[in-house]
Amino acid sequence: MDSITSAAQAWLTDFFDESTKKEIQHLIENDTEELKERFYKDLEFGTGGMRGIMGVGTNRINRYTLGKNTQGLSNYLKKSYTDSDLKVVIAYDCRHNSDTLARTVAEVFSANGIRVHLFSELRTTPELSFAVRYLGCHAGIVLTASHNPPEYNGYKVYWADGGQIVPPQDGEIIAEIDSLSFEDINFKADESLIHLIDKEVDEAFFKASVENGSFDAKGKDDFKIVFTSLHGTSITAIPEVLKRAGYKNVTIIEEQAKPDGGFPTVKSPNPEEPEALAMAIKKAEEIGADMVVGTDPDSDRLGIAVRNLEGKMELLNGNQTMVLMTKFLLDQYKEKGFKGNEFIATTIVSTPMMEQMAKAYGVEFKTALTGFKWIGKMIKDFPNSKFIGGGEESFGYMVGDFVRDKDAVTSTLLACEIASNAKANGSSFYKDLIDAYVQFGFYKEKLISLTKKGMSGAEEIKQMLIDFKENPVESVQGSKLLWIEDYNTSVAKNVQTGEERTMHLPKSNVLIYETEDGTRIAARPSGTEPKVKFYISTNAKLDKAEDYKSVNSQLDTKIDGILSELNL
C-alpha cells in the first residue's frame, strides 16, 4: 500500500489542477480501496490501444494519462521523422469527455510543434484510418472505448499506413512514454497548428466506401433496412453511404440516432449482444424489413439480423457474417479472374471455415493474433499481395485495403448488397449462408466471456489461464485431444505423438486445444476489458440444405456438452 500511496501523493504537486488534487486527497483520507484501484498500475496498451475507466489516477483515462501518451508519441514521431513537417489527425466518438480529451491531445501535439488535423465533430474510426493516408499524416489518434460501458474511454494510435501501431513501434512508443514523468507533458498549445476538418474528408471517405462496398446489387428498390447507430458515430456516415449506393428504404431508429455517451436505451452499446439490437429488430418485424444493422459507438463493428428459415429476424454472429461476406467477395474476384496474389485473413480464435474457403478458391489464407491491427499489418507486410477481405469473430470486418482497420461503414453496405442481391434471386442472406455450409462444411462457434473486475479480477483471470494450460483436458465430447497451441511459447504440441511445431506469430497469452474431430477451444484474456474469453468451434458435414435444422441442433447440443465439461 505504501507504493500506491506514494504514487497518489505524486499527483498532489502544483503541476496537477486543483480538482484533481482535491479528489486524490479525498481518496487518500477516506477510500483506500478506490485509491488502490486507481493507482495499483499504469494503464497499458492492449489489442486496441489504451482503454480504461475515466477518472483521476494512473490506472484511469484522464488529461494527464492521455497527455503523457501524447507527449511520448510526439517525442517518438520527432525521432522517427527527423526531416518532416509532422502532421497528425485526431477523431473522437460520442463518449463522455471524448471531445475535450481530443482537444487536450491536439493541444499537446501542437505544443510540440506538430501540425494537427482535428475533426470538428465526432466521426467514425474507419474514417480516421482513411484520413491518415488521405491527408498524408504521420500518425492518427481516435478517442474511443469502442463498445465498453459508459464509464470507459480510450486512445487508439494509428501510423502513416492507416493501420494501428504494431511491434516494434508499439513497444518503442510505450518505452518513450514510460521514460517520462507527468511533469514532462507540454500542455502549452500552439493554436496556429490546430486545423479543424470535416466535409472534405467526409466526401472522400463516402466516395471510397461506396466504390469498395458496392457491387451493382439487384433489388434495391424492394429491400428494406432497419439501421441503428446505438447512440454512436455511424449516424454520421452509414445513412449517407447507403443513400449514395441506391438504398431508399432505410428506417433509422430515431430513439438511438442521437449520439449519447450514456447509451440510455441499451445495457451495452455492443452489437454482439442481442439486447442491443432489440429495438431495431422489433421495428423490423413491425414493418417487414429484410435486414437489421447495428453498429458500436465508434462504428468499427457491425451486427446484423436477417430473416431465418421461419421468416423471423435472427441475429447472426461475427463468424457467420464474415464467412458470407468473404465468400461474396471471393465470387466477385473469381468472376473477374484471380491473378494469383490474392489473400483473405482472419484471427486465430475465429472460425476455421475461412481457411476451408481459401483452399476451395485457391487463394492464400493468413491468420493473425486477435486484434484487427494484425490484419492491417499484413497489408503493409505483403505489398505485392492483394487483400480481398477478412475479419474476426468479434463482429469486425474490412473490405479491401482503403481503410486499414475494421470498418462497419463499408461492411454494412457490403452486407446489404449481398442480401439485396440474394432476395432478388429468390434466396436470402440466411439461405446463402446455409449453402456455404453445404459447400465448405458447417462450422458453428460460441463465445463465453467472464467478467472479472479490478485487481483481484486480474489475478483470477491469470490463474484461470494457468489452470487451462497446466491441466489440459484429455478429450472433448468423446473426441481425443490432439494439439495444444501455446502462443506464449509459440509452440504447438501434438499430445499423442509428441511432435512439436513452431508458430510464427508474436507471443501472446492464448492457449488453444484442438481435438481429433476438429473441435477447437481457445482461451485468452481480453486486451481491452476485464474479461477472460473462451472460444468454442465445432463442425459437421452438411450434405444438403434440407438437413440444416437437424445438423444445427446436433452442433448446439455438442456445444452445450463442451460448456458443461469445462464448467463454463
Automatic annotation (TrEMBL):
<keyword id="KW-0597">Phosphoprotein</keyword>
<dbReference type="Pfam" id="PF02880">
    <property type="entry name" value="PGM_PMM_III"/>
</dbReference>
<dbReference type="InterPro" id="IPR016066">
    <property type="entry name" value="A-D-PHexomutase_CS"/>
</dbReference>
<dbReference type="InterPro" id="IPR005841">
    <property type="entry name" value="Alpha-D-phosphohexomutase_SF"/>
</dbReference>
<dbReference type="InterPro" id="IPR005844">
    <property type="entry name" value="A-D-PHexomutase_a/b/a-I"/>
</dbReference>
<keyword id="KW-0479">Metal-binding</keyword>
<dbReference type="InterPro" id="IPR036900">
    <property type="entry name" value="A-D-PHexomutase_C_sf"/>
</dbReference>
<feature type="domain" description="Alpha-D-phosphohexomutase alpha/beta/alpha">
    <location>
        <begin position="210"/>
        <end position="305"/>
    </location>
</feature>
<dbReference type="InterPro" id="IPR016055">
    <property type="entry name" value="A-D-PHexomutase_a/b/a-I/II/III"/>
</dbReference>
<protein>
    <submittedName>
        <fullName>Phospho-sugar mutase</fullName>
        <ecNumber>5.4.2.-</ecNumber>
    </submittedName>
</protein>
<dbReference type="InterPro" id="IPR005845">
    <property type="entry name" value="A-D-PHexomutase_a/b/a-II"/>
</dbReference>
<dbReference type="GO" id="GO:0016853">
    <property type="term" value="F:isomerase activity"/>
</dbReference>
<feature type="domain" description="Alpha-D-phosphohexomutase alpha/beta/alpha">
    <location>
        <begin position="317"/>
        <end position="437"/>
    </location>
</feature>
<dbReference type="InterPro" id="IPR005846">
    <property type="entry name" value="A-D-PHexomutase_a/b/a-III"/>
</dbReference>
<dbReference type="Pfam" id="PF02878">
    <property type="entry name" value="PGM_PMM_I"/>
</dbReference>
<feature type="domain" description="Alpha-D-phosphohexomutase alpha/beta/alpha">
    <location>
        <begin position="44"/>
        <end position="182"/>
    </location>
</feature>
<keyword id="KW-0460">Magnesium</keyword>
<keyword id="KW-0413">Isomerase</keyword>
<dbReference type="Pfam" id="PF02879">
    <property type="entry name" value="PGM_PMM_II"/>
</dbReference>
<comment type="similarity">
    <text>Belongs to the phosphohexose mutase family.</text>
</comment>
